[in-house]
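#onboarding

Welcome to the new folks! Below is a worked example of what a typical request in this channel looks like: someone posts a single protein sequence, and someone else replies with the predicted structure as tokens. Don't worry about understanding the tokens yet, we'll cover that in week two.

Example request:
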Amino acid sequence: MTTTDAKSAAPQGFLARWRRPEVLLLLMAAAVPLSFATWQALINNFAYERAAFTGVEIGMMQSLREVPGFLAFGVVFLLLLIREQRLAMISLLLLGLGTAATGFFPSVLGIYVTTVVMSLGYHYYETLQISLSLQWIDKVRAPETLGRLISAGAVTSIVVYALVWFTSDLLALDYRWIYLIGGGATAAIALVAWLGFPQFEQPVEQHKHMVLRKRYWLYYALVFMSGARRQIFIVFAGFLMVEKFGYDVGAIALLFLLNSAINIWLAPKIGRLIGRIGERKALIFEYIGLIIVFTAYAVVENATVAAGLYVVDHLFFALAIAIKTYFQKIADPADIASTAGVSFTINHIAAVVIPAAFGFLWLASPAAVFLAGSAMAACSLIMALNVPRHPQPGQEVLLGRVPTTAPAPAE
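Example response:
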């Protein structure tokens, strides 16, 4: 090789090392919190201060936010028109644009509309990220790699929460500019991902139609309960901090920052732990912990203790990796993209109803909302006991097994 050839090959070799599927997943995972963490850190205070939201409006807004998740099965049909990787980038761009616009519409209707736009991008991206991750990453490395994706998002979240605290408490920037900065950064990264990475090949051609299989029934049930239970944390635990304990924007941002800092270190380790102990034990541990945490929310009267519960509650989210890797182990590889969309819809059936319905329950008894969360976690625990120690096609459950030969046809 000549000197000229060596010089030209070096940059290409450097680019080849970085232009890999895993790097793209990490980049996009880091881009999401720039918008979503900004939206989440500000929304309770923004809605309460600028649009006089009560628990009813907060619940309605969160129900509307979950509607795009309920419609996530539409991803399957969009794949007839555009490749999965490109659609993920378009969704990321929509997330950024919806967030950037939020601060410019400080009214009930304005917050509802911008929330739906932001959420459409967020939920479609998350659906596609799950699908691409399970296709591009082998089963052995999947738990740890999924943990790294959480860790990458946590790193960005720390930057976001620090900036939210700095810009709101020290610089006293208006909400609209903070939302614009966070959403604009996500949109910019979406464009970089579009222009800077090649189209990666999929190992198995994915189905372009709805896929529902009887043998996946336990996975569907776990996903459904996860969606119902998660709303208690996302919607009402955060609102508890603002309404009952008087946390301001800076305090909420610092609380989120602490959660993210712990996840940077903990999420990859949880991924490795799931790889060692298996999905069954990981899920059992998660649900026992959530029963305790939700019950404690119902009776807590101290702001510091409540903040501690909020941090512990957030740490259990990383254990949800086990549901994804459980599905990866039992799935027909061609089902992954379609089932990712279907599972997001199942996840959001309860998520669409619970925030609005529990918003009215909140007016009567906030404690009852959290005790309902404990009951949901108990139901999930019973389901987790039915997960085999070594799940695989044909051994999806311990009880209620559906007879199958080879990959089952689409039903």
